[in-house]
Design a protein that fits this description.
Elements: H1 7-20, H2 22-36, H3 42-64, H4 72-90, H5 96-122, H6 127-156, H7 159-179, H8 200-220, H9 223-229, H10 234-247, H11 250-257, H12 264-284, H13 288-316, H14 321-324, H15 326-348, H16 351-368, H17 377-380
């Protein structure tokens, strides 16, 4: 039996995490391609990305509560396989309506697969460390994606983006079929009987991460566009995106190293505040250097913070149900982000994104303040 501690099992989870979280890496190129290559306006481009994320949210919500009773390998393999087919077909289409339907269907398929992936990570021996490992894989994937995909799209056209997505999903489907691991027996519920509800602390963590996901997607979708519209130049903005990918190598390793040294609650509070401040710099700066510095570390804050959130929620809910809903957690906010960001940019300009980020961060801070401190964690743990 392949386990989460085996090399093959971890590779399958790493590939699945990269494929399922492709939006976290690709949103600037995704939205930018829909605007520049397909000639959609900012609102339409944001809507297409949001439909993919809405599909992922719906699938995650539907599967999360039943995660501990599902065949994770089957769900992951079928989900990523169907997403590969959907993106492959999308590369042959250019109409908004058809692309909208395909984005939603691909989101549902990959979201189901990602739920199985994250739920299995949550039921590993050390969820915090394993999530840091798959986060490091995502950072490496981000560097390769940002370095290779924008030039290919510029040279060969918009359909190449969807062909790349299809290839990524196909690799994840094959990895799932060959090596998707079984959950750790020590963290698996002993019987499929009635289960207690998720605690208030778990729900606060879920809402707080959803808020950070909203700020992340709202800003990240227009990271490339704001730089281009400010006249920083395509080469300079692409360099920032590549630098962002390189910087993203550090947070997972740091999060794993600091697991026992930092309190998760403090990390979450600090992460939400710092994320909002970075949005203000990115969206309000007329100079390239502040924009570049803030943009290059923007995604890193979310990666670092979410690793601690994942570990904390895995301790509060050992059934894996809450973290099987990680796609819904991140993508409920992320689904709203691109279309909300596009609407705000279209109506009020880029500065409005900074104000929106501050307001959403206030909600996240309120939620994270309700999480248990390190000393109270044992009493707050949710039994499976």
């Amino acid at each position: 039996m392949i386990t989460t501690d085996s090399k093959r099992g971890r590779i399958a989870l790493m590939v699945g995490h990269c494929a399922g979280m492709v939006d976290l890496v690709a949103l600037p190129v995704w939205v930018g391609t829909l605007v520049a290559q397909y000639r959609f306006d900012a609102q339409q481009a944001g809507m297409l990305a949001s439909l993919f994320l809405v599909g992922a949210v719906l699938a995650s919500v539907a599967l999360a509560a039943r995660f501990d009773r599902l065949n994770g390998r089957l769900v992951a393999t079928l989900g990523f396989g169907l997403a590969a087919l959907g993106f492959g077909y999308a590369s042959t289409q250019s109409g908004f309506t058809t692309l909208a339907v395909l984005h939603a269907l691909c989101g549902m398929a990959s979201g189901a697969a990602l739920s199985a992936t994250h739920g299995t990570i949550a039921r590993s021996g050390n969820p915090h460390r394993l999530f840091a490992i798959v986060g490091l894989a995502l950072a490496v994937f981000g560097i390769v994606f940002m370095g290779a995909t924008p030039p290919l799209v510029a040279q060969l056209g918009g359909p190449v983006l969807f062909q790349v997505f299809a290839g990524v999903m196909l690799v994840a489907a094959l990895a799932g079929a060959l090596a998707f691991p079984a959950p750790d027996a020590l963290r698996t519920p002993a019987q499929a009987g009635p289960r207690s509800r998720l605690s208030a602390s778990v729900w606060c963590g879920i809402v707080g991460i959803a808020c950070m996901g909203l700020v992340q997607a709202m800003t990240f979708s227009f990271l490339e566009r704001v730089g281009s519209d400010r006249g920083f130049g395509a080469a300079a903005v692409t360099g920032v995106l590549i630098a962002l990918g390189i910087v993203n190598l550090a947070p997972p390793a740091l999060a794993a190293w600091l697991q026992k040294r930092l309190a998760a609650r403090s990390v979450l509070l600090g992460g939400a505040a710092l994320q909002a401040l970075l949005v203000c710099v990115i969206m309000l700066s007329a100079q390239f250097l502040p924009y570049a510095l803030a943009a290059s570390v923007f995604a890193a804050v979310m990666i670092f913070t979410h690793t601690f959130a994942f570990g904390l929620l895995a301790e509060l809910d050992r059934s894996g149900r809450a973290l099987a809903a990680t796609p819904a957690m991140l993508m409920t906010g992320a689904a709203i982000g691109p279309v909300l960001g596009g609407t705000l940019v279209k109506g009020f300009g880029y500065a409005s994104l900074a104000l929106a980020a501050l307001a959403i961060a206030a909600i996240a801070l309120l939620c994270f303040s309700r999480l248990p401190r390190r000393g109270a964690l044992a009493q707050a743990r949710q039994p499976a």
